[in-house]
Write a structure and sequence with these properties.
Blueprint: H1 2-9, E1 33-34, H2 36-43, H3 47-56, E2 63-66, E3 69-73, H4 74-83
Antiparallel strand pairs: 1-3, 2-3
């Protein structure tokens, strides 16, 4: 991970306040958004089953970015994978 960040900044040019994003306890306000396809692939369930669970309140509520753009917070999906429903 650090290698990828170094490629963005250049070798040896990492900001002094750099924190590894995989260390969730050290990051603040950093949360990626993922779409339904990424989630259903990670959970090995179908799209219909995912949406049924979202509507029933079993799975996390989505973030609506527009009329046809729906995403979920990656931290909530990771919590779902680790701790289950």
């Amino acid at each position: 991970m650090k290698d990828n960040v170094e490629k963005l900044y250049g070798y040896g040019d990492l900001p002094t306040n750099y924190q590894d994003p995989m260390n969730y306890s050290s990051t603040k306000f950093v949360d990626e958004l993922v779409d339904a396809k990424e989630i259903t692939d990670a959970l090995s369930i179908g799209n219909t089953k995912w949406w049924e669970g979202v509507r029933a309140g079993i799975y996390p509520a989505p973030v609506h970015l527009g009329t046809r753009c729906t995403r979920w917070r990656k931290s909530e999906i990771n919590h779902l994978i680790i701790h289950g429903v």
